[in-house]
Amino acid sequence: MTMSARPYEFTVDVAPDDIDFMGHVNNASYLKWVQEAVISHWRSLAPVEAVAQHLWVALKHEITYRRPAFLDDDVVATVLLEKVHGARAFYETVIRRGGEVLAEVKSSWCCVDAETLRPARLAQNVIDHFFVKADPEG
Q1: What are the C-alpha distances in Å from 2 to residues 14, 45, 90?
Q2: CB–CB of 79/10 below 8 Å?
Q3: Is the domain covering 2-134 a CATH 3.30.43.10 domain?
Q4: Furthest-apart CA pair in the chain: how many Å?
Q5: 14-68 pLDDT per residue, tens
Q6: Coil, strand, or helix at residue 20?
Q7: What gap in Å lies between CA 73 and CA 23, rounded to an integer?
Q8: What start-end ranges are recorded for coiled-coil regions in this protein (predicted)?
Q9: Is the pTM for the entire model greater than 0.85?
């Protein structure tokens, strides 16, 4: 039996201050959305105690922009935790408007202890909340 990432849907609020001089969402706003989506993913799926004990620091984001977004668009970010290695987590986030992919983002994050602010490994039982067992027959 294999494990697959549990997809997490995050509704993005396209705000007037996301719009740049060309009339569409500024590239920097996508980064803000990814950070909000990943943190929301963590808070929604992790046990309450783990959320209280750990914080996340972004290490790297690689964004591929596909299409522009506009003020009245209905935008959703789908977050997948690809893997956890030590104190690092690797995410894929796809930002869509309906069936159109607006941006694809690969990011890595460091888990830190909320008190010491030092890198912290997550227990396997916490990591398991982000994955579902996939039946290869099914």
Answers
A1: 37, 19, 18
A2: yes
A3: no
A4: 52
A5: 999 999 999 999 999 999 999 999 999 999 999 999 999 999 999 999 999 999 9
A6: coil
A7: 13
A8: none
A9: yes
